Queue: 4 jobs
Job 1
Amino acid sequence: MKELNDKFPAWMSHHKSSTEADDLVRYEKQQRLITDIVGKFEESTYSDSNPMDREYIVERMQAMQAAGSPPADLVGDMSGAQKALQDMDSNCPQQ
């Protein structure tokens, strides 16, 4: 996530004019979600054992998953990320 957060702004600035409007909206949403996730992880009070912190991350990861894959040339092979998302979903209670 951290690496994706670091790379996304430059990718957006370089590809903004050549990206279709629908994709651009989706990528901007993904970029905001990634920034939120990384920001939460970097908080000094963050803890995996804190249910509110975990819920915050899970909600944003689910929103990322719902938004589809980030740009392929930005993330490369997404199989590892998709597996992580699936693992996270399987460990979360359904509401």
Job 2
Amino acid sequence: MLFSHVSRWASSAAIIVCSVTAYTPASTAKTDQLAAQGLVNLYNWEKQHYTRGQSCQINNGYVRQEWTNLTQTQKTAFTDAVLCMMQKPSKTPKSLVPGARSRYDDFVATHINQTLTIHGTANFLTWHRYYVYTFETALRNECGYNGYIPYWNWGKSAFDPINSPYFDGSAGSMSGNGVYEPHNATVALPTGLNPIPPGQGGGCVTTGPFKNITVNLGPVAATLAEPEVVPGPMMGLGYNPRCMKRDISPWVTSQWSTDDDTYDLIANNGSNIYWFQTVMQGLFDQGFYGVHTAGHFTFGGDPGGDIFTSPGDPMFWLHHAQIDRVWWIWQNQNIDARLNQVSATITINNQPPSRNGTLQDKVDLGVNAPPVAMSNLVSTIAGPFCYIYL
């Protein structure tokens, strides 16, 4: 493991607001080179393991692309499909989730219900891989979307997220920052270390494709320090309509979302998936966010800053597509050794203490998809999947 972040914490403390309006993406060359080499490795591995009649091959799989590589038409098609999911009626029985009003809420409710058994657990990566894929499938089958989930290469926007094409509030963004509302520091980590200084947002998002959307569920464990942001009814499963709030934080991104951070995660955690997924999710007793927690608290707010209700912010899907991509890159560096690795228990950070997870454990997404064993979710070119990242 490589922890070279202490000095950056000090140097980044002043990066609370971004004063530069002309956005320049940072280089992601180091991680992208690992991805390219990994794809070559995967191609060679497939040739050695190809089985006659195998339906999925790299050459006929679909490709997930980075957000900034999409055309405006492709971006609009994606955001329109997400908005469509917010209009489709819920399939979840009201007896289970009284607050669900849409198909989008079905996915948020599933995450709320399973949060304590899908983070800091053996199934963290497989569960979220299947979850993102299932949402992608719903966009295509239920809302006529012809594309695939794009990913957010965090390093590109690490030094200027507010003015980036992800959050600049344009029609081609994933919507902008919230309007400014006075608020206190965000205590993002359960240890209370390294609270996030208040940023320029905190209020409702009023720009971009998701302006004025209604969030129906949660929060459960809100972190946005505003008086009106309080836990929703019925442990977040009751009806609690409100605006989507964000507080975009260059303070977070400049410390834990750079290309160096992602490269170090992949290259310097060996072939042990336990340390790979643990460092990815964060070392909270050290105040270290990790790329996973940092991604969520890049935009934070409500519902994005609540571990339970975070899918309520549509940026969740691009973030977790990148989480999946980083795992895919890590796997592809040594496929035989890393493809079928699983580690940790079945409860969040082993609290309460529980048994070790296994590849035979099922991932169950409720009304959204049938249960699938983790063993069928470890490869993006096998099981229900057939995709790669470019």
Job 3
Amino acid sequence: MLTSVGFVLSRVFSLLVPRDWSRRILIDILNESNAELRTRLVNTFIDSEITKMNTTGVTAALIAGVISSSFSWYNIEDTTWPTRAAWFSGLVLSIASVASSAIHTAAFLRMKCDRDIPQRFRHALGKYKDYEGEEHDIWKPHVLIPYVLGGPTLHLKLAVLAFLIGLFYELWRAANDAMLTWHGEHLKIAFVVTLVGGFVVINYIFSIWTLVHRSIHTPSKP
């Protein structure tokens, strides 16, 4: 039972942080034998991370604005504490995403100023493993590095999730308070919005599976 629950939780968490994808890319970069190619790969990886962090930071700031504006709704005082708790949590998570994105961007920019970027990259993101036999990789990423790199994105996704949880909770609470009958508007609104939300979730999972998980499990050779 616990194994099944752990498997389900790991699969759900992998939708938020694609750990295997980042780990495989880092292993290839850290163990590239050609110095010139390794330098190009490191620079490409750093540039892509900076772009990703900038995009994540801007998006998180927009999400924080959306959540903040929800507190100016005319009936905000009528909402229950779980709704406001979820929205405040989403606001904190979005701010954390902005802050961590800025910290990561500054760290990678400093790394690009180093005279020996590949070696600095290795010591910052990897660790040396002295294995017997040449079939093993010498450099391995730190265990938590994939999660650290995905931290700003994880905060952003959790912020959106917290806001949606509060929104749907409030919709169905209003529907339940107004008698469960199709003659009331609250139940109709909650039902329609839930259908739209389900459609969005299905498309999100499909896009993540197509872009991330298929890239992880697709063989490099045709």
Job 4
Amino acid sequence: MPPDLFYAGFNYTHLSDYTSRITHFLADRSIFALMSDWTYDFGAWLSQPHVLAIVMAWWITFIVVLLLLSIFLGFNPVGIGGGTFAAAFQSCMYGGFTPAGGVFATLTSLGMLGWMIPVHTGVSAVFATAVALVVWACGIAR
């Protein structure tokens, strides 16, 4: 006798073979109804003004911080971007002679290898979460 399976709709009816179990699973379709209910409940929860304000605060903050870090910091996959903080620092401190193995050279290398993108994303997510928590704590849109 095959082991009992846990399947659709939390239905514990004992069925003796796999064919009848699959047939019962497809006929029951309660998992699909449950998923539909979850989707509707999530949409209703998300459309509340205070939840929408928190989500919007998170996304706007995330995008703004990500753009500020990526564009204005200057350590990009193409090298040091012109007119960025990194370019200004390099021209002011080093001129054309950036020392190898230093912090600036390491950050340039990490940026050109694409390793700064996850760092920018992580910092942006942490900052956006902090802003979303402040929006939630202040009770905006309630």
